[in-house]
Amino acid sequence: MWHARRFKAHISPHECVQEIVVLSKGRFGLDKEADPFELLVWMLNTLHGMVRKKKTSVVYETVRGEMQVATWKVQDMLQDDMVEDVEATILTMPFLALSLELPPTPLFTHPSTDDEDERANIPQVALGTLLQRYNGTTTVETNGLVRQYTVTNLPAYIVCHVKRFTKHNMSEKNLTVVNFPVRNVPFGDLLHVHGSTSVTYDLVVNVCHVGHQGKSAVDGAVLTEFEESPFFAYVRQGENLWFRVHDLQVEPVMPQMLFLSDSYIQVWQRN
Fold first, then answer.
1. What is the distance of C-alpha 42 from the center of its chain?
2. C-alpha distances in angstroms, 268 versus 187, 206, 246?
3. In this predicted model, what pLDDT tens digit does every residue of 239-263 receive, in sequence order?
4. Residue 112 per-residue DSSP state
5. pLDDT tens readout for residues 81-118
6. d(CA 252, CA 162)
7. Cβ atoms of residues 66 and 90 within 8 Å
8. Which helix (H) or strand (E) holds 249?
């Protein structure tokens, strides 16, 4: 929404939204709620198509990484006595984001009438644990196939998508708390990327979601501000200056506020 060399350096957020509505052919707009991750992926691909030269663009060069996906059929592994001898199908594919699968929500929890005790019952998981899915040794079984993901190239900016919603309409939400540091996260070491084990990243954007099926995960007074638009973003400027962006409202916040909401999308910048 800002350009250094245009005659009109700034455009309003409304103009930006109107252009998105036109380009997306009504897929995204002000009259309906949409998944911000779908919007982000759509914007990255659309911008790539606008500015690309030959097969690449500054957009893909900045945010697109690469991984290898090894696939085995479960049936072949069961039939062969030596599992190591089963040949895998290996594909190299690009990625714009790393989808992080949260552990299932426990079916039974201890009932509590106190808000603090209720939040204490919510399960927690470390960011590094979720990233193990892409370290090249963890296997994932789905639909009769076993897959192994190995990241081979890390981009300048890594987008992480925490898969909180089990249905497309976001009617069910996983409230698991994701614990993460803000500085010097060793993505290269966590993902076992060859030649990049010393590469670290800092958090620059944290998109969060408030509420759960009409019930707030935080204070009731805070919920009224987010009833119509439950998504907001924490954005870093400079070394340690953070802002909360909610619709047209932008206000400075303490860095500790980043850990009080449910992370949905994170953007990490390479050091």
1. 14
2. 10, 9, 20
3. 889 999 998 899 999 999 999 889 9
4. -
5. 545 556 788 999 999 999 999 988 776 655 554 555 55
6. 25
7. no
8. strand 249-253
